[in-house]
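Dear support,

I submitted the protein below through the web form. The confirmation email said the job was done, but the results page showed an empty box. After a refresh the structure appeared. I'm attaching both so you can tell me whether what I see now is the final result or a partial one.
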Amino acid sequence: MEDQLLGLHHITAIAGNAQRNFNFYTKILGLRFIKKTVNFDDPNTYHFYFGDEGGSPGTILTFFPWGTVQPGRRGTGMATEIGYSVPEGSLEFWQKRFMDHNVIYNKPTQRFGETYLPFLDPDGLKLELIVSKTADDRTPWETNDVSAAVATKGFHNVTLTLENIKGTADILTDVFGYQLIDQHVNRYRFATGAVDNANLVDLVEVPGEARGHVAGGTIHYVAFRVKDEAVEKHFQEKIAARGLQVTDQIDRNYFHSVYFREPGGVLFEIATDNPGFTVDEPLNELGMHLKLPAQYEPRRAQIEGQLPALL
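What the results page shows now:
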């Protein structure tokens, strides 16, 4: 039971303008800004983290806001949709809010016995608010405009679009311990019973569709959750045993990570729960300070001078 994958940890996407990205997710969607740091490989680019109060695994959406980045294109070989769990009765509130703030959205519809409201963020990233048919007792982050009665509770699911689902499905079932629980036309829903929420992955099979292009408004990678480095090492070895290239364990300050590209082309990460986001600032100050990886601390003044100010 210890060597389990515990559903989704975080999802990372690419945005354009940093201020616009920050405003949308904190002021319109009402997520908490839990960490302001930089891209480990490009310290002149922010890495933003949004989530619940403490950045619990399964609630964390992260962005690299690359300024003038060209728009990406949804297609095969990538994650294409992010589903957030919301309370029953909240979708009317969200439709009005989206209308008031000029957010592009479609009317609610049904899938797998659940009602969902699709919408786009300012960069064109596709998201959905979903009233889950299973109980979600996670405590949401509240703001003055978004109360607990309507607030997002964290991820419900993520959708991967693939030319052929077999190789990806084999990773989910044989390596990650997921099971196929439902199917509607070309959408296959997989779930892990290890956790109650943020535990669903949908695979959409579209043979012949053009491959996606990862850039602005698209998902860069999907991170799955494990308890600690020992469990992560277990999965790293399982992935390598299948002949897939997988990285060494990498310290990302707030979790440890390994990365690999699954057979359908989607970049997957496995991330640990520990040490969490309070390792370098207290809970009540999360997101208030620019936190730099240790190797960039000597360049703080230069980096701060090149990053756009957030208002």
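Response: this is the final, complete result; the empty box was a page-load delay. The radius of gyration is 18 Å.
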